[in-house]
Amino acid sequence: MPKKNAPLELKPGMLLVSEPFLEDPSFHRSVVLLCEHSSSHSFGLVLNQRQEIVLDSYMDEKVMEDVPLYSGGPVDPTIMQFIHRRPDLIPDGIEIGEGIFWSGDFERAIELVVGGEIGFEEIKFFIGYSGWGAGQLDREVKSNAWMLHPAKAEYVFDEPTMNLWRKVLFDKGGDYRVLSTYPDDPNLN
């Protein structure tokens, strides 16, 4: 693993970037947006695992058939959450990074999507989440399972999901740029 330039701290608004050969299939080449981190637990949403299903699979409204869903992680796929960058339109969200808001008034968010007032470059819906118990995520970071990088709204909302893992590592610079080029199958190297 590349040496870390400056220590980054685990806190809401950080990205967890999986190391290239992480064996857990739930997190293969994933980028997780950390939403909460405390001494008792950590919680985040995988940003780059878009699902084949759409939001109308979970809701009665057929108008939601074009709304993409992302897998937030392997924990409790019955829970739906969202992140957005429109606090001016969606009240009660929690700012977890500059221009990145988690949750808020769900009914209002749905109204805005249905009415075409918010586009998919401004909001993402997730089923499930990524969770860690007390100290677990700290240990995983120390063992180099995850690399940390500050989240930017551009990563969260604008970067195509298939490019996100590579883009974040490339932007970290240095030896991380080399990691960003690793093929999925190391035998192809």
Automatic annotation (TrEMBL):
InterPro entries: AlgH-like (IPR003774). SUPFAM superfamilies: VC0467-like. It comes from the Bacteria. It holds the Pfam family DUF179. HAMAP family: UPF0301 (MF_00758). Belongs to the UPF0301 (AlgH) family. This is UPF0301 protein HME7025_00465. It comes from Aquirufa nivalisilvae.
